[in-house]
Write a structure and sequence with these properties.
The chain contains three helices and six strands. The protein is an alpha+beta fold and 120 residues long. It has one domain.
């Protein structure tokens, strides 16, 4: 399902903050959920590529799923890297009461929550 347009600014900001390494800010304001800034930093470092802001048109392809009869949204966002363009990483987030934050998912190699590898 298409992502509600009112959520796009918060999604863009979340992806941008992750791409530019604002891990402490993500932890401090709660958007990282229970994941610490150090855990986020480690996962991105261990991936071995440089996260970048995705092209604007990629947000038109963001997958969103209604949860609780539309009271919440689960959203999957493709992440991009400098080296590969669209990467094999997907950021899964949840929107609830106007707040967007990471979901509990696992990273393929490190089992850290919130960022997960998309299966080919």
């Amino acid at each position: 399902m298409k992502t509600p347009v009112q959520l796009l600014p918060a999604l863009r900001q979340l992806v941008h903050d992750l791409a530019v390494g604002m891990f402490s800010e993500l932890e401090r304001d709660g958007r990282a959920g229970r994941v610490t800034a150090e855990e986020l930093k480690r996962v991105v470092r261990d991936y071995g590529r440089t996260l970048v802001d995705p092209p604007e048109e990629s947000f038109a392809k963001v997958e969103a799923y209604e949860v609780d009869e539309g009271a919440e949204w689960a959203i999957d966002i493709d992440l991009w890297t400098q080296e590969e363009g669209r990467s094999d990483l997907t950021l899964s987030v949840k929107e609830s009461w106007g707040h967007v934050f990471f979901l509990h998912d696992s990273f393929a190699l490190s089992t850290i929550r919130r960022i997960r590898c998309r299966k080919p």
